[in-house]
Amino acid sequence: MSPPQNTDHTELYRSLVDHARYPIDRPQAPRFAEVIRHVREELAVDGCAVLDGFLSEAGVKQLLAECRARRANAYFSPSTKTNVYFSSDDPALPPGHPRRIFMERSNGFITSDLFGTETSARRLYYWPPLTAFVAACLGKRSLYIYDDPVSNMIVNVGVPGSCFNWHFDTNEFTITTLLQAAASGGHFEYVPNLRDAHDEHYDEVKQVLDGDTARVRRLPLRAGDLQLFLGRFSLHRVTENTGATDRLLLIMSFAGKPGMIGSVHRTRELYGKVTAAHIEAERRRVRSDALMD
User: Fold this and answer.
1) Residue 6 reports pLDDT greater than 60
2) CATH class for the region spanning 17-284
């Protein structure tokens, strides 16, 4: 999906965000510096930071309406078991290895190709001040839109009774905005910094998969909250939605390098489709590290 045209929609973008609290397109404003400092302090602790009420009331309403308009086209995989890397089984590894532990996953996705360039969600995602703001929060000189044409901006659909099992992200940086919380359940849980760029730490991953909750943190979120999360290194999941309505989460992904695209296996598993871009990316594989996806 190509980015929106370079028409000036500044007022639209500002209306989607609580601009008084989060003047993300005004880096010289004192409030901008305060927000960046707050985020960096939280990220330094455990790779996760939350900006409560980031979206305006009108912003939540608009993005939720776009999401609901596409809800009927959400993809739910017929294969409901995955490991934390979304990779295939490897019989060469011993039984009980994390790469051989497969868990139930029953959430769905509204994929990015369903959001046209006219949608507010896509305009916001491609708004350069948002990317620059996220880069400033992460202390990066520059960031790039995650190039995956299927999954760079998606909505995670957690229907009643569904869950999203423990996993790591392919992309380095993800920002999520809750559009509709589950009436009960549907909690975001994570284990900060469980692996690093040089080591999978399989033993520690297995401890969590075996039920050790000593390092597990639960994050309370409300509709409109923005979460910045380093999901490449922190194991995370969404617990079962025990309510009667969908949990809807907008996910916008960024990368430290241009050209990052999800693997063919992972993309087909999660979203039910791959493109020529995925097949080409499999050949050249752009990643910031050598970790499993």
Assistant:
1) no
2) mainly beta
